[in-house]
TrEMBL record:
One of its GO terms (molecular function) is structural constituent of ribosome. This is 50S ribosomal protein 6 protein. Residues 44-59 have a biased composition (Basic residues). The keyword Ribosomal protein applies. Keywords: Ribonucleoprotein, Ribosomal protein. GO terms for cellular component: chloroplast; ribosome. The lineage of its organism: Eukaryota, Viridiplantae, Streptophyta, Embryophyta, Tracheophyta. Coiled coil: none annotated. It comes from the Eukaryota. It comes from Thalictrum thalictroides (Rue-anemone). Pfam families: DUF5323. One of its GO terms (biological process) is translation. Residues 43-104 are annotated as: Disordered.
Length: 104
């Protein structure tokens, strides 16, 4: 199996420098048994949350920037069959109330 089949892209292998060569621009390869070594990426990808925060849609139009949330009219009062529980009510008060059967 080739290296390009593993990584999905073309991989360029640097030839080993000869000992007689006087050029110092080629750095020696790391001794890893001839296998390709992948180190740090120069352009790492953003992780999911960072990517979504950076590329989220931003309001640029003046009418959209100044827009406020919709104000709805207040809800109607609860029906008399319903009871509103607050923090003041305790389990003893709830147990003291008789159960009411509803006919279906």
């Amino acid at each position: 199996m080739s290296i390009s089949a593993l990584f999905g892209t073309r991989v360029m292998l640097i030839p080993k420098p000869s000992l007689n060569s006087s050029s110092s621009c080629i750095a020696p390869l790391p001794k890893c048994g001839g296998a390709a070594v992948i180190e740090c990426s120069s352009r790492p990808q953003k992780k999911a949350t960072a990517h979504h925060r950076k590329t989220r849609p931003k309001k640029t139009q003046p009418w959209d920037v100044k827009r406020r949330p919709t104000v709805y009219e207040p809800l109607p009062p609860l029906p008399s069959e319903w009871s509103l529980l607050t923090n003041e009510s305790t389990s003893q008060e709830l147990e003291a109330q008789p159960l009411v059967e509803v006919e279906t």
